[in-house]
Amino acid sequence: MPIDPLQDLYVHELQDNYSANSQMVKVVGELCEQASDEQLRRMLDTSVTKIKEHNERIAELVRAEGASPDEEHCKGMEGLVKEARKHGLQESYGDPAVQDAAIIAQMQRMTHYGICGIGCAKAFAQALGKTDAVRELDRDLGDIYAGDDYLTRIAETRVNEEASA
């Protein structure tokens, strides 16, 4: 059976996303504990649940391709998690609203990375004719976009205003 390079890239992308989510879920839980804005805390708590759900689906997609989900380590998310810990958790801004603004900024950076990764995996699945995978990945993308939009609303209507006061 010939090897399909796009198939290999698709599986690699899924594995990379699995690793990224596995790293991200830990720091999002930590950011949730640090956040002072109640809406932000609820959103981050929901995000932890959603990331775990997304990772379960990604693992199923990888296994369906005959591979293991944890064969890859995402260096990109490793750096983003390091930055999230530094700027969202370790730095002290002296103002809870400014801390929340930093948490939102770090969360959005990681979220945008996820949008890229899941979007690429979806595009590869589409090109390979994997309609079930496209549907699953599209659902996850919808969740990620909705979370990102909600973070923007929290920042623009509450947190950033309080931080600048």
Order of helices and strands: HHHHH
Q: How many β-strand stretches?
A: 0
What share of residues is helical? Answer: over 70%
What is the second-level CATH architecture?
Answer: Up-down Bundle
* Termini separation: 64 Å
General shape: elongated
pLDDT < 50 runs, ≥5 residues: none
Number of domains: 1
Description:
This protein has helices at residues 5-34, 38-64, 75-90, 96-127, 131-164. It is mainly α and 165 residues long. The chain has a single domain, classed as Up-down Bundle (Ferritin), CATH 1.20.1260.10. The mean pLDDT is 95.
Task: Provide a brief overview of the structure.
The chain is an all-alpha fold and 165 residues long. The protein has helices at 5-34, 38-64, 75-90, 96-127, 131-164. The chain has 5 helices and no strands.
